[in-house]
Amino acid sequence: MRKKVMLKIFLALLIFYSSSATSQIIEIPIPQLPDIAVASIGPYGEPVIYYNPYIVQKVGPLISQFFRAHEYGHHALNHIRREWFEGNPYNRTWLRQNYEKEADCFAARNVPPAVAGAAIQFFALTQGPKRPSWYHPTGYERAAVIKRCAGY
Ligand SMILES: [Zn+2]
Predict the structure, then answer these.
(1) Which of 63, 104, 112, 125 is the most buried (most CB within 10 A)?
(2) Number of helical (H) and strand (E) elements in the chain, helices listed first
(3) Are residues 31 and 54 in contact, defined by beta-carbon separation less than 8 angstroms?
(4) Largest CA distance in the chain
């Protein structure tokens, strides 16, 4: 009986600490990931960033540093939980595109100017008027957000 209570307290504390906003974000390489990186929640409710080490190597250190900051932005801005609770079933696209812009802005404010500059070039040159998936803004839109938030 007493053991069960202790276990319940332990589990409650574990969930509390792992879900608090200040908890450390774990970065996990997933070679099969179809994208460079994704902010997510792990099996114990802990914030994680999954990334594809091959794509990271391919895009180089500046662009990967930008994407890393972008995923940290998704966690810092609480996008993952917000998406669970505030999802508008009639207009998901706009919401998701807005989250991407917010995370880009967060990244632009938290990386060195050389990284922001490389990201602006990357989005303008490799994507331009196109979007890589339905929930991403166009490359030009992302470049404009990064420019504005980095203070160019
Ligand atoms: Zn994103």
Answers:
(1) 104
(2) 7, 3
(3) yes
(4) 64
Over residues 31-90, the pLDDT tens digits come to 999 999 999 888 888 899 999 999 999 999 999 999 999 999 999 998 886 665 555 545
**How far, in Å, from the CA of 1 to the mean position of ligand 1?**
46
- Cβ neighbors of 61 (< 8 A, separation 6 or more) are none
Residue 118 Cα to ligand 1 middle (Å)? 17
Ordered by start, the domain boundaries in the chain are 2-150
Half-sphere exposure at residue 16, Cβ-oriented, CA atoms within 13 angstroms: 6
Compute the distance from residue 10 Cα to the ligand 1 centre, in Å: 34
| Placement of tokens 């974000």 in the chain | 25
d(CA 3, CA 123): 56
